[in-house]
Amino acid sequence: MVAMIDLNTVDDDETPSSGSSSSSSSSASASASTVCGSLLSAASSVCLELWHACAGPLISLPKKGSLVVYFPQGHLEQLSDYPAVAYDLPPHVFCRVVDVKLHAEVVTDEVYAQVSLVPETKIKQKLQEGEIEADGGEEEDIEGSIKSMTPHMFCKTLTASDTSTHGGFSVPRRAAEDCFPPLDYKQQRPSQELVAKDLHGFEWRFRHIYRGQPRRHLLTTGWSAFVNKKKLVSGDAVLFLRGGDGELRLGIRRAAQIKGSSPFPALCSQQLNLNTLTAVVNAISTRSVFNICYNPRYFTVHPSS
Questions:
Q1: Fewer Cβ neighbours under 10 Å: the N or C end of the chain?
Q2: CA distance 187 to 174
Q3: Strand 191-197 relative to strand 248-253: parallel, antiparallel, unpaired?
């Protein structure tokens, strides 16, 4: 269950209700020089442009200062032995977004967000009486600009050949020519070194070559190391994104959870316990700030510290 609804995306005549989003291929912009440097929080270290590309095009995050509805049931589902009545929790809580921090799991590269909320107990009555309208938050709509621009980006689902230890990564010609620096086709075997940063800012180096019969674009040297380190398998997707500053970035979308890994981000799973839920209950009663984690690839929200 999605445990948070952004009121700024709900029509005036609709009643807020939980829903699910699905993610597919490309969603990013062409201006890394402005967008990648404009993070939702100073404490975030993930490029907003790349984060959204990995999350998928149907994912939307509330902006700092915007009004949302928080549903405690989304957390209680993770602790099924403890019903809402045991905590005297309301079915929903109107909250103001204090902060949004973007993260990526170190092991899996799964993207998620930590959202800080503060209860707004008087908002519901004012909304019902028409005294105020749900506002869009105090920040510039950077996220909206991302989705409205055409990116220099491609996303490809990996084949068995792409993940072979002795193979390379085959790139469609149109994608390579749009996203990668141009090759000198006058050379007998056009090639170049590509440097791409992942979600953690780590630089990966690949040999980009144009060869074969018929000729095709391939990433060779460095590709197997990337596949092994990220534990990629056939069916996973890899995306490359080139921003306005020319910097190349890459991310992944997994087809399934890595065997033995937790479906929850470490930051969230460490806090997914009764003590944290009690802290959330106290925060609601005292109108103080509490945090939740939103994982767009699992379409659920989890409590955080």
A1: C
A2: 19
A3: parallel
Structural domain count, the chain: 2
DSSP 8-class letter at 77: T
Same domain, 43 and 185: no
User: CATH number of the domain that 158 lies in?
Assistant: 2.40.330.10
CA distance 286 to 303: 17
Task: Give the model's confidence band at 115: pLDDT under 50 very low, under 70 low, under 90 confident, else very high.
Answer: very high
* Spatial contact of 204 and 196, defined as CB atoms under 8 Å apart: yes
Which residues does 252 contact at the CB level (< 8 Å), separation at least 6?
54, 109, 230, 232, 236, 237, 238, 239
pTM: 0.73
Tens digit of pLDDT for each residue in 83-103?
555 567 788 889 999 999 999
Same domain, 156 and 140: no
Mean pLDDT of 91-116: 91
Q: Which residue segment(s) compose the domain that 212 sits in? A: 152-253
Identify the CA nearest to 198 among candidates 233, 172, 229, 157: 229
